[in-house]
Amino acid sequence: MTDSQGRTVRDLRLSVTDRCNYRCVYCMHAGLQYMPGRHLLSLNEYLRVARVCASLGIEKIRITGGEPTLYPQLDELIRELGRLPVKDIAMTTNGSRLEEGALVRWRDRGLKRLTLSLNSLRPERMTSITRSESSPQTVINAIGLARQLGYHPIKVNCVVRRGMNEDEIADFAHLAREHGIEVRLIEFMPLDSERRWSPEEVVPADEMIRLLRQHYELIPIEADDPHGKAVTFHFADDSPGRIGIIASVTRPFCGDCNRLRITADGRIRPCLFSDREWDLRPILRNGADDERLRRVIIDAAWAKPAGHEINSPSFTPPDRTMSAIGG
Ligand code: SAM
Ligand code: SF4
User: For residue 64, how many other CB atoms are within 10 A of its CB?
Assistant: First the structure.
């Protein structure tokens, strides 16, 4: 499946809910209205879309949300995705609900990689960022457990927002070294439901790297995945762990983007920052055959925009916010 720019689409982000047990300040505001439950796809509908995407050359599927561990049929979803002819199944989660039994089941059913979000290592700050009862230690314990159970690689996503947590960047590098994992520092993107985003709140990649280099000597890693979105570094002293920087705002990687997103309510979203979507729900619910579904998915992929416009003066944030798209 290629787009009009010659990029081959191989990576599917499948959002299974827009609900969440957190209200992270950079993502959801406190009174955010969820989508009506009847609009969300059923398990069979998610699986049908995933199956058709796999037949079109999708190689990686990442389950996301909202908080995907709130999706009641996650076990069945992972089991069935694990039977598809794809190379890789991963999940992004806030790490608050990762119990050993579930991690074992998901691993045995084919989930290979986990990305856990963590935005502060300071308990009080984490509570105020997530506006929930949450604790960094819960996520750190989940990292240890997932590692023991063989998940690999395990990554930590940390959204860095000006005035929120940029003073913890070196602490996050320490976390990466201590646990031998990749910590990915993410520039704040204009996808928060509060519409607070402004360029002043972005801590640019260059500044993050400068802050890191005050504490650690970093060596850039030649990209092992040309479609990987992070600029990655390892530590010059050969300690384990690495740092990735996801600079969607200041160093867009659109030219290498090979992703397609499916929202929890069944829209195909070829670009995070463009409101253009293709609605699969009526097609799924009116008895259309797989060929019709294939055609719409191929059309949506073909129309993937060449790049985003965040840095253009006329940019306006998209209508859908991160939790309703699937990050
Ligand atoms: N709830 C899960 C979590 O937090 O990991 C999965 C869904 S969340 C929407 C996916 C990723 O998007 C998370 O790593 C989160 O930190 C990131 N994210 C959310 N809002 C963002 C924003 N405005 N800018 C950059 N990243 C954001
Ligand atoms: Fe929930 Fe993830 Fe958004 Fe935080 S970033 S509010 S955990 S969906």
Answer: 25
